[in-house]
Request: fold
Amino acid sequence: MTTTNGQHATDDQATKPAAKKPKSKGAKKTAKPTWTLTETALAYLESLKAAHKSESTINAYAADLDLATEVLGAETPIAAITPADVERFNSSEPVLRTKSGRDKALPTIERSRRVLRLALVFAEQQGAIEAAPIEAKPLGKKDVPLSQREAIGNDDAKLYPAAADDDPAQITYASTGEPVTE
Reply:
């Protein structure tokens, strides 16, 4: 094999690829999405559509996320949302009251709070934020498995007091009230 300047290349030179530059062993930089609250809401709603949730569920969740963007700001970066902001949303007028000023039903209030929480957890799962800015809920009675619940027995002595020793049990007919004789 001849090179362009007329010299012969050795087998080592012909078969070896050019040496690569060594890669730096520094940490890889991964670009994290910088979602706003509106973008988070839209992405979460799209995930619900992909999961084949009903149209009424998606519409209700969209209305709740609209409340969140109204209270917290539509262009707020989700990385800037703090647990205090979530608490401010949870206790805000649009969450607690209707437009006419009446108190909303408790299940509606709880759904609005839950939807924001779910959207923030979704953003965390998608890598948009390090951790969802929500406080851990204390476990309720329903959240603890039956096998781990504390046994609370009925105090039978209070419910069914024992008869006095000199008072034998007496069985009566329900229809007549007369004692049963053997």
Q: What stands out?
A: The chain has a mean pLDDT of 78.
